Fold these 3 entries.
Entry 1:
Amino acid sequence: MMEGSHNGNFIYDKGLDVLIVGNNSIPEKISTYIESLPDVFTSKKMVSYITDAIEMGLPEDLVIKEIDGLYKLTGETYHRSRLSLASIYRDILSEKYPNGFCTGSATEIKTFRDNIKEKYGDVNLPVNDHALVAAVSRIGVLCGKGCYKLKQKEYISKELANRIHSYIEESQSSIFLMNTLYEVFKEDLEKEGVDNKYYLQGILHELYGDEFVFTRDYLSKDGEDTSLYPTIIDFIKEAAFQVDRAQIQKHFPGVPDIVIQFAIESPEIINCFGKYIHASKLRISESEREYLKQNIDAIIADGAQHHIKELYNLVSIERPEIFTRNGVFYPFSAYSLIEYLFRDDYKFTRPFIAQQGVEITGTSDVLREEVYSHESYDLKELSSFANENHLVINSTLDFIDSCNDEYLMISDQKMMRIVSIGVDEQIAQQVENIVVGEIEETTPIYKIIGLRELPKVNVPWTDWLVYSVLKKWSHKIDLAASNKQFRYAIPLASPKGKMCAESFEYAYKDPDYKGEIPIFDIDELLAGEYGDSILEENLWD
């Protein structure tokens, strides 16, 4: 409030150093107005505040004098008292870096400094960039690799935060890779704007920093497992040759497997197909590194994802010494090496590489996209497509079953869209009723006689079509294959809970059986030349 002395029709205000005659309420109104202004505002905003004051009937010169007395002007910013560097950093982060300030280069840090200088003038920023970054990290939250955004009251919903916390607490593991936690909750996190594991780490550190122990790559519930983690990495680093898990376990008897797993998944450990080498032991010249990068760029220039085998095969022919010198003898190992060398340059999802920004889809998604573009699909073509694109199908039958939202097997050679086959849930109920009424134990489907009474559909009934129909719709029958290798398998059915596929592991179809189930159509039989005699014969049986 203004302080002053009053005498009749005038008032002397000490703060403004003016004598006000007539309206004694003006100083009080000016004080009230100034109190309503924010603690910090720009010179441009100052103009609008003065305009507002004038419109309220307040004298412009007195309002300006009051602001000048209560505020300090630093650069283009008015503030009530001396601004701390932390408050300046907060303001710049909020205004200029809503998506995060990345500290990855001197150029980016210089831009940050320039933003401060433009708005606040010379405020004696620390000369050392590391000091500036450290200060920003204290007031910000990690939101990317080396990136920070201003701390917020809420990052993710309480419901999602509680689910992540429960997952950690209820797990038997005491240590969690950040990448693992992110993948488990990826879909929900992305819906709430968390698009990488670093941001998740920053959020969890803000929420549960007092409860869990955090390192660069993982979270520990008690901190006890973290002490061996760097020691194992040092052991690998100091080893003369590549080491395997057995050697690590021998050197660290009793160490939990999860701790070894975290150590060997550290970014500086290269996984050479079950043997591990520290990145410091790599022997790759700058020209060899450039050679690898040029070939990667050429391979992924089409904007699609590519299997590491493409690069591995090329380098193994042209410059094999690059790989052999570093113990890389398999595509798996090559992936680990390339990911370490170019982690920030490309998008990596084992075993694929792509340009930054390209969405890498998994093997099943790539195969499904291929199948779903056809009305029917030959399973031999599926195998050829997988080989051509360096895709590994762990289980042909599991993949086929995963497509039964739109496709069913019509034989052991082909898949077809359900709508084209002509089956539906009602027909599936008939199939289920026949099978349930006829089997008491695990039985090859082609031996179920009652299936000959099925209604006609658009394709011939086969044992694999019956399998697919039941797999999609039945709740009373268990289905399995007699052999893990699809090409040697026959489909089996059993009552729920009674499947024993092992006893049919070496079972094969009868040599003259082709898979089709002959349909017994009584109307066609009766309409034929011998209809009467057939009917009579059946009646007397």
Entry 2:
Amino acid sequence: MRWFADLSIQIKLIGAYILIILVPVIIISNYLFTGFYQNTIKDIIQENRYQTDNEKQEIMSKIEVMEQSIGLLVSDRQLREYVTVESEPELEDIKRFQEYSLTFLQSVLFNNSDIAGIRFFVNNPWISELWPIIYHEERIKDSPFYTKMMNQNGNILWEIQSEDTLLQVQDSNAAVNQSSSSIVSLMAGVNQINSQNLIQHLGIIKVDMPIGNFFKKAYNNSSDRVSRFYILDQQGNLHANNTDPLPELDEADIQQAVAKYQQAGKSSLLLSRKGEDFLYLVEHIDKINAELINVISLQTTYSKIDQTRNTVIVVILILLILLAITTFFMQSIILNKLNILRESMKQVRSGDFGVDIDVRGGDEIGELAHHFRQMLNTINEMIADAVKRSAATKEAELQALHNQIDAHFLYNTLENLKMLAEVEGQYTVSDALTSLGSIMRYNLRWSSDRVQLRDEVGHIQHYVTIMNIRYDEKLKLVIEVEDRFRDHELLKMSLQPIVENALKHGVYSALMKGDGLVVAIRAFEEGGFFYIEVTDNGIGIAGDKLQELNRKLIMSDEEFYALPGETTETAELNKRSGGIGLRNVNQRIQMVYGEEYGLRIESKRGSYTQVTVKLPLLTSGRGGTQII
């Protein structure tokens, strides 16, 4: 991860592009080629299954031809009469049979070029052999199939045998017949019931067909085909065209494959031999009890698919290389701006805040450079402002020292006047001077901008005491604050401007002739917030003026200073009273505690005015500010 983090963005982007393309391409290619392999195998199976079914149909047609040939011999009445004579036939009878029946049977033989011979081996010593149909049964008594036929009591028998020396084939398809020394033979015993109602054995009819004609596809394998046909007979012997076998396969391999095929019970079987895959399709031929085997070599198919895959891989690699080169040059152009921005940042880091960033444009890097320039401007402005503030702070410290000296002089002077008033018995003046001193100390003591509610209320009490001298004790201050709220935190001088506005704008002559102005301060908790209500029974504020006043409390400075000239009443409400007006009080609260806090004014003309201060529920003590 550390090595990767140290790589340049350009190398990371090029690597990301290659991975984004390479990984999906590998996954998709693997999926597609896997599916392609499977679909190709399915197509090969389907195609060769069709060929195998066609070969089986042709074999069944050959079986039908051979069975029909035997049927013709068995159903020929003249032939049956000839082979059942009980004495030596006359010459005329032989000529008549040869002229009619034998000629017909020969025409059946020679009209079907696939049949090599049709012979009737007769168990009758009285008749003479008539080539190529009639032979004596003595010729075949030493043959293995004769014993099988006699044991089957006349049933038919199919066998694949070596070529019979009795055959004298005159066949136009000699090339096929010469390719093999085997024949497919159909043998059937011929019996009849004699005059004593006993079964009499007349002989054996044998129809022979060269194996190359019977299994044409197996013995006509073309060298350009990737599949070969084989025949496995009931004795377990394998027959095929040995002139063009499949490479890497021998007779034992095919026999083992057929055994596994029969055990698996599947429609096809895929086996490997010496690193080469072979697909086996097997069809059972019931009547001859043999297996027709279609063996397909997949080596050529795999080679073609591998060649296609390799071509695709080479093309993908070439495209990736071209993409990497193209991406490299394109990113060099794009990242050049970023490099300029990086060098500019290095200069700023070294302390050069006057660097000029020569990067323009509306793209992301151009926008970043624009904001970086603005940031530099802001930093330069802040540096200049900090210098100015530092100078102003020094000046303020000198002024504060001077004020401190003046304040001590005033405190001492007020204390001397208070003592003189008490000596002269002017206790009202003495109390007023005490309150005035407390007010001055509270105003001048700014060690913190946060105070406890008890301090702010005490300051207001001193203020009202002094103002009562002016209003002839017609001002009354009512404090409704529970002891648990007196330690609550609030901003210094946040309630005094509210009370001051109540005195300045709530007093009217009728009220002062009566009970006077009553200002009530009430504190309470509600909904997790702390509220302070300052209510007076003064003249109140008209509805439109009240709405305008509440709107000005929440205005931004830009909106407020853009207002046209104000009336005397609203201007007076927003003037700084003791340095802080209602709007400034609201702004100070929101700046310190948040936008959800501040002032809300309610009033009814000629009845009352109520200012509600919303604050968070906090206490302020020696241990710091805490949430109640």
Entry 3:
Amino acid sequence: MKPLSLFLLLCLASCALYAQKKDLPSFGKVSEEELKMTACPFEKDAEAMYLYDAAWVRYIPSSEIPFVTESEYVVRIKIFNEKGFDYATVKIPFYDERKYEQIDRLSAYTYNLGSDGKVVRTEVDKKLFFREKTNNSVTTITFTFPELKAGSVVEYRYKRIRKSYSTIDPWYFQTRLPVGLSYYNLVIPEYFNFTKQMRSRLPMERKEEKVRDNYENTYTMRDIPSLRSEPYMAAPKDYLQRVEFQLASIQVPMQPIIPVLSTWEKLSSELMADENFGVQLRKNIRVPQEIAEQLKNIKSNTEKLRILHDYVRNNFEWNGIEDIYTDGVKNVMAKKTGTNADLNLLLLNLLRDQNLEAYPILVSTRDHGKVFRAYPFVSQFNKVILLCKGDNDYYVVNAADKYNPLHLIPYDVMGTDAFIVDNKASGFVPLWNPDQKKTSIIYFNGEVKGDSLTGAATINSNGYARNTIVKKYKESVSSAAAVYASNGDYKVGIDSFEVENLKADTLPLTQKFKYKLPLNKSGDYNFFTVNLFTGMEKNPFTSERRFTDVDFGFNQSYVVSGTIRLPADAAIEELPKNISMIMPDTSIVFRRIFQVTENVVQFRINIEFRSPVYAVEEYENFKEFYKQLFTLLTEQVVFRRKENS
């Protein structure tokens, strides 16, 4: 490595010279025109916008190691109204463990127009740059801007120095705000071979040129629309316009190619040797005596797993921090609280103490983003949970989640790829089971009395439907009841709410309550819906365009049935028709049956979602089907009072 290091130092010494800033806004020089702007030119309703978002990345010789990467960032944001004030709070996370990253030369300013029409600049006091630990590896710098008002421009810049030459952060041109100008400049040594991945559907200016022994890559995008939240979207970063680089190999003249890109097997080995990960799996923590006595006569591995899982999640508190590494599982036994990694690696020790098969698995939660198998980096994951063997099946377990039962894949990782970390059994495993879904079986009877429909309902919630209600019920009874109290444009009165099977998480959660629903009226006509308590009262997919996939996260099943007694003098004018409707690919099935016997209306509705994800390319057909689905769901029973003969 010495000849290589010397060579690289020579070719890198001038790297920083070629990161040009010609024809770009100058830091600290905000114009009157920018301060007088009242709206984003290409997205009029935006509460704020990035006027300028830029980064320069280059390799710098270092005294500790041959070189480090240095990234300089400049951000300028225009605040249009008070709703945009949230974007004037800045958080800069960085990996400070072993000083892997450092943040340097941070400065920030607020700009306003004074009463004399001149630009007034207010500096953020460096004492207001607050540093706090996010988890065992990450520290976050947080600050806000003074003198903030509608019309202000805020601006900040900083440098990130990283002790690495193989990892370069992705550059995101698109954000949750519109961006006027996004600029990215990367200067790399001639003999560094990078893989590159781009996601770009918008116009982009690209330029690559050779300058001495380096290549300068420049990417520019302008007038970039925001990526806004859409119903049932997964991680926004999976859809943002971006460019990603990864150093794959180094080829110095007259020397063999030196591979740099790691492998998943190598990553697993490194983690197993890490003091804050693999070493913590071998701490030989013994199961407490009272639990050991309980396990002594149990032969079922699944039941042993259930008991130990319940022991950790019921006796230890998650502190809200998601992490992969732990400061020490023995500390958790004493403190009774810890991070996601602390609790799960503690549970793994207890399972192995009882000779149960269990592995740590790295996961990227649905809101964190997809894992790309071509890039073997631990940074793609945001927490560690467990894969545990029972009698016949494997179970995905998160000891930090008090509401997810043993038999159910945790919702936030359902449908994702996990990586098993183990010296012998490392590899990817898909976290998916089509039979684990959200299931709601709803039965209610009712009677029309005066201007209202009143009655009693019983709802059996299973799978992911159960999890939601259990959590809300443990917060308060009123929180659980509120789930059913909203029905489209009017409220449902809920009374005498109670639950059964709260602690038996292998059984459906049964909820029983009384309800009162006001009738809709128009002249002599009364009408009501039987689409009650499903959570499907309003169509969320009405936008003409969509930028992200529709991602429900799991399959779903709804059954709604019951009977409604009408007054003796009621004459039915309109009754929803019996109908079946199926998505062309059979992924959604809708069936409805109505029948009337004398003055009693009986009904049954079945809705089955057999796919959790619908690609953005399918949105037009999906949207049209959903429109028809909700047209059927919102059809009502219409009746009027018979005239006296």
